[in-house]
Design brief:
The chain contains 9 helices and 25 strands. The protein binds FE2/S2 (inorganic) cluster.
């Protein structure tokens, strides 16, 4: 049953994204003690709800277990660009996976955009879905060369792309290409529609249920949320990355991307989706919310737990001011994504567990497309149907040549943090040395602690050792969270898990404050 009183959708950080004020209706349900489900899905973001809806509409009895509330993770923090070109570029995919796979990838993007449109129409979801052109532009000789290669490889893959004399914005450029067949939407409005359709079809959702363990047999999966247990035939981790220590801890690296939503003093809002070629690149688009246009600009990414969020926001604001007549910065937020070692997502059956557990992860910055594909592929696999993209995104694929360099780099980084963060810890002589609304990992009275002070002067002390694999967390002042530099685990100021592979809270430590 749906609760009619939607409140603003909470998210995994302190900052409010442009989508959250929309709110989302939450479902309430009470499965019977002996209920057995065809499919249990952990996570009520876009991946989980697409999977749940596609299965429920095929007559499967589904249960969605959401640790917080729908859209709490990256679905509430995305900028919702819908593309058939990706962070893994077509020249890279051609080189690592072959021309045929590049063409398949292009078709998968088209199909995902088509699926979003189809579901929005079928269930009358008013999610501001709009077909768009996209412009990618270069600003120096090296970028010009890469842009040409991208256009040629994209064309070979069957993508609708051509050279363009304009770049859809007033930002100076040297060369530009225009992609047809792209789109944008409002992710929380869309997710809300999926939740409602799922519920109308008889699906069950429980919020506030963090999956802490699974156990499989030949016939079933038992899913534990603390002491509560749920039973079903199949289980799907639609949790951005499957929890615990598994192959994905080593094959995916966590990044944070930054976003501002600004008003302009003039009406120079781009009508298209816009991308430059910087490293990391900037991405822009316009969205109208309650009659007000916002220019949404993203970029300045860095690995989670690395970099300085305040510097990223400053750089993003400086970028906006350099190219637009900025009125005000109405929104600023950040969001997490996982990059896979070979650039493509892992979608499908997880190894072991009697073949009963499925997932989708490693979406890079293309979460709305690959999340939708997760729903399409995983539902087909569970229903025993062929899916044309299952092999390309198979989590068990081995691509050593494509993977090797990134793999070594990411693992070296994890190992570095595991060791180095233990050595260098500053001493905190007195709690008054800590600023309000700030947190630091310090040596306090001989103990290594993650200490946070709120604006009232209340101090919370936690063990800084991440409960996933033992790295040391660092404070993200902008989102007021403790972020782990190794695999992207994130915790709130009380130590509760809010995202990533950890399943247990950071330990609270008593200190005399
Ligand atoms: Fe893996 Fe913290 S997320 S050690």
């Amino acid at each position: 049953m749906i609760d009619d009183h939607a409140s603003p959708a909470p998210r995994d950080g302190e900052r409010v994204s442009a989508w959250q004020p929309e709110g989302i209706k939450t479902a309430s349900a009470s499965p019977g003690a002996g209920d057995f489900f065809d499919v249990i899905i952990a996570g009520a973001g876009l991946s989980g709800m697409t999977t749940a809806l596609l299965l429920q509409q095929q007559g499967k009895k589904c249960l969605v277990l959401e640790a917080s509330s729908p859209g709490f993770g990256t679905t509430g923090g995305t900028t919702a660009h819908l593309n058939n070109f990706f962070d893994a570029t077509y020249p890279e995919v051609e080189s690592d996976f072959g021309e045929e796979s590049a063409a398949l990838l292009a078709r998968s993007g088209n199909d995902a955009i088509g699926m979003i449109k189809t579901l929005a129409e079928k269930y009358a979801i008013n999610c501001d879905f709009e077909p768009k052109d996209a412009y990618l532009f270069s600003q120096d000789e090296q970028e010009n060369k890469e842009l040409d290669e991208m256009r040629e490889a994209s064309q070979r893959a069957g993508v609708e792309v051509s050279e363009s004399a304009e770049n859809g914005t007033s930002i100076p450029f040297e060369k530009a290409i225009r992609f047809g067949g792209q789109a944008q939407f409002h992710p929380i409005k869309y997710l809300k529609g999926l939740v409602e359709a799922f519920s109308t079809l008889g699906g069950t959702m429980l919020t506030g249920k963090l999956v802490t363990a699974t156990e499989t047999t030949d016939n079933e999966v038992t899913v534990s949320c603390g002491d509560e247990k749920f039973r079903g035939s199949h289980f799907v981790y639609a949790t951005h990355i499957p929890p615990g220590i598994n192959q994905f801890s080593f094959k995916c690296a966590p990044y944070r991307s930054y976003v501002i939503g600004i008003t302009l003093k003039d009406d120079n809002y781009p009508a298209s989706l816009i991308y430059d070629m910087k490293e990391p690149y900037h991405y822009l688009r316009t969205h109208e919310i309650d009659g007000q246009k916002y220019l949404i600009i993203g970029g300045e990414d860095h690995k989670t737990g690395h970099g300085d969020p305040e510097e990223s926001f400053k750089a993003l604001t400086a970028f906006a001011e350099a190219h637009f007549q900025v009125g005000k910065v109405a929104f600023s937020w950040s969001s997490q994504y996982y990059s896979s070692v070979d650039g493509l997502p892992y979608i499908g059956q997880m190894a072991g567990d009697h073949g009963r557990i499925f997932t989708g992860t490693g979406f890079n910055g293309n979460g709305m497309i690959f999340g939708t594909l997760t729903g399409m592929i995983v539902s087909d696999l569970i229903l025993g149907r062929e899916n044309p993209y299952a092999k390309l995104f198979d989590p068990s694929r081995i691509k050593p040549i494509a993977s090797f360099t990134e793999f070594v780099k990411e693992q070296a980084d994890v190992a570095y943090h595991f060791v180095a963060d233990r050595i260098a810890t500053e001493k905190l002589p007195d709690l008054s040395d800590l600023a309000p609304n700030d947190g630091r990992v310090v040596d306090y009275e001989g103990k290594k602690l993650a200490i946070y002070k709120d604006d009232q002067g209340n101090v919370t002390a936690l063990s800084p050792t991440c409960t996933h694999a033992g790295c040391i967390v660092s404070f993200n002042k902008f989102e007021q969270t403790w972020d782990c530099p190794c695999h992207g685990g994130r915790f709130d100021i009380d130590g509760r898990v809010i995202t990533g592979p950890p399943q247990k809270a950071l330990k609270q430590i008593n200190i005399d404050a």
